[in-house]
């Protein structure tokens, strides 16, 4: 299968790794820019986006991940990973002011969009492209409050957009890697089997 990277700075990267390996993909844990060499896709996992952003700066990964995307590498951000992809981030803790992001996905993402009282919940969502509902775990999940013209909305839950696609970028507010349902990972892996357009 294709070689896929999982950004392994913090958060739920081991679960993504297991799901990808179950589907026959070769997995590289990405911590340094050089780890991106030879990858067809990269998953940015859930966790804590402010912590991940700080580590992205520390390991000098912002530029290399943007270059990876520009060179045709596919990206999928889940939860905090989706926040890292967004052009604009709302709801960063006040002490951070502006929150750094890759700004590759033309959305405004609202952090913790489902309230703090209900920290996490599991539900089923309908995702376009999947024939049956997908179990989805939301943990202090964000939502895509604004989506740009080139952004396709794949899924909404309680009136909020929770999955989007823009070209080679996929972003989900929830965690598909915390369930046994592999269909979204399968979709991502299958895209990478196709030859890169040049
Ligand atoms: N609320 C977290 C953040 O803003 C994301 C939570 C998650 O990835 N499960 O980083």
What features would you describe in this structure?
With 198 residues, this protein is an alpha/beta fold. It has a single domain, classed as Rossmann fold (3-Layer(aba) Sandwich), CATH 3.40.50. Helix content is 23%, strand content 32%. The protein has helices at 13-22, 49-58, 62-70, 80-85, 183-193, and strands spanning 3-7, 26-30, 41-44, 74-78, 86-90, 105-110, 120-125, 134-139, 143-147, 152-157, 160-166, 169-172. It has a seven-stranded mixed β-sheet. A three-stranded mixed β-sheet has the order 5-6-9. Strand 1 (3-7), helix 1 and strand 2 form a beta-alpha-beta unit. The longest helix has 11 residues, at 183-193. The radius of gyration is 15 Å and the shape is globular. Bound molecules: glutamine. The site of glutamine has 11 residues, from helix 4. Catalyzes the hydrolysis of glutamine to glutamate and ammonia as part of the biosynthesis of pyridoxal 5'-phosphate. The resulting ammonia molecule is channeled to the active site of PdxS.
């Amino acid at each position: 299968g294709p070689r896929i990277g999982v950004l392994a700075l913090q958060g739920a990267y081991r679960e993504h790794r297991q799901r990808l390996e179950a589907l026959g993909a070769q997995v590289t844990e990405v911590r340094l820019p050089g780890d991106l060499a030879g990858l067809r896709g990269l998953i940015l996992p859930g966790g804590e986006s402010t912590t991940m952003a700080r580590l992205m700066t520390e390991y000098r990964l912002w530029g290399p991940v943007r270059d990876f995307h520009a060179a045709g590498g596919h990206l999928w951000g889940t939860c905090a990973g989706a926040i890292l992809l967004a052009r604009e981030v709302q709801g960063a803790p006040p002490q951070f002011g502006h929150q750094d992001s890759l700004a590759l996905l033309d959305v405004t993402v609202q952090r913790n969009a489902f309230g703090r009282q209900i920290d996490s919940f599991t539900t089923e969502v309908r995702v376009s492209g999947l024939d049956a509902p997908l179990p989805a775990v939301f943990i202090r999940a964000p939502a895509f409050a604004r989506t740009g013209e080139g952004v396709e909305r794949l899924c909404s839950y309680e009136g909020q957009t929770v999955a989007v696609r823009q070209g080679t970028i996929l972003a989900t507010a929830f965690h598909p890697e915390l369930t046994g349902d592999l269909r979204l990972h399968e979709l991502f892996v299958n895209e990478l089997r196709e030859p890169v357009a040049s």
